[in-house]
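Notes from hallway chat w/ T.B., transcribed later so I don't forget. T.B. wanted the structure written out for a chain they're using in a teaching module, and asked if we could keep both sequence and structure tokens in one place. Agreed to drop them here.
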Amino acid sequence: MKIECPSCHLTGTVNEVELPPCGRRMTCPRCKHDFHVEKPAAPPAGARLMSTCPACQYSTFTDEMFAVCPKCGTTAEQHQALARKQQEREQDRRNQEALQRSYRNPDLVVAPPRDLQQPDETPRTAKPIEITAWICLAAGGALFIYAVAGIVTYYSRDWQAILSEPVLEPFSKLYVFAHLGLIPWLVLLFSLYLSAAAFQFGKLRDGSLQRLTEAAWIGIAVAATHQSVAFYDWVTISSSKPGFSYSAIGLFNALLLLALLAAPCAALLLILRSDRITREFS
């Protein structure tokens, strides 16, 4: 049984079987205070005795039997009542599952008790999809700023007059737009499409994987258009008919820059075709 010093409240245990009927005088080993320990009353007839508490696993490791756990206060009857309630809940759950699997009228199926229902789990976006979506959103934002800056630069000055000044025949507005205004507008539209596709991709929307794949191919097409215009300018800037070596150098530079500009889009296509991405949309 559990005892406590009334002076310093030091606790300890003694075997109540060894206590005499009149009790025993004890001395606290800490404060040396003397106090009397009375033997607990015998449990009523028919009361269940136990040597180990089934709730907290308390045990005296002796022949001492107790009806009330001196550590947590649990009685054998209380523990049996809790065990019966637990068994009843488990049986109700099994009966409910068996009823739902049967061919009875589904209108007669009663919803399980609230404490037996599993909490709803909110689906979380897979980490590779979340990282890919954020990278594409960041790239779309950077391209949007670049495109807006290019459009502002294009419309802020009269490029037709500036480019036509050193030449005899002035350039047309279509030529000026194709060389200075077309690429910023294409990049602007591409950035908006990429950002929208990446946002839907991060939310696991239907068709978002296809939209982001299309955005990657559009990015490669924009890069190819950009380098085609650059190669055309490289050839036409020559004062005379360009030779083979001159054109070869321009073509090599255009292909090299095209590979560098299209590399992120190609990497995105490889990521979107990986198993870690496709299985989330299957």
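Follow-up for T.B.: Strands lie at 2-4, 11-13, 24-27, 34-37. Might be a good example for the class.
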